[in-house]
Amino acid sequence: MAQVKITLVRSPIGRPADQRATVVALGLHRPHQSVVHELTPTIQGMISKVQHLVQIEEV
Q1: What pLDDT, in 10s, does the model give residues 8-25?
Q2: Host domain of residue 18
Q3: pTM, full prediction
Q4: Rounded alpha-carbon distances, angstroms, from residue 59 to 2, 15, 45, 52
Q5: How many CB atoms neighbour CB 4 within 10 A?
Q6: Who contacts 23 (Cβ-Cβ below 8 Å, separation ≥6)?
Q7: What is the number of domains present in the chain?
Q8: Strand partners of residue 35
Q9: What kind and span of H or E run contains 4?
């Protein structure tokens, strides 16, 4: 599977609790922090839920 680099570019403060939980579940805690994940259907769903808060790059 392909890998993607996910970077938190906007703060989840003031967002609904489910979006904040999704950001934490992706492993993101601070703005401009990046993590690399395998692009599985689960990760794709999480990314689509918070796509307005993150930036995605293929690795």
Answers
A1: 999 999 999 999 999 999
A2: 3-58
A3: 0.92
A4: 8, 28, 19, 20
A5: 18
A6: 8, 12, 50, 53, 54
A7: 1
A8: 6
A9: strand 3-8
For residue 8, what is the domain's CATH number? 3.30.1390.20
3-state secondary structure of 49: helix
Give the length of the chain. 59
CB 32, CB 8: distance < 8 Å: yes
d(CA 11, CA 37): 20
Rounded to the nearest angstrom, the gap between the alpha carbon of residue 44 and the centroid of all alpha carbons in its chain is: 9
10, 37 in Cβ contact below 8 A?
Answer: no
Q: What is the pLDDT of residues 32-41, one digit of tens each?
A: 999 999 999 9
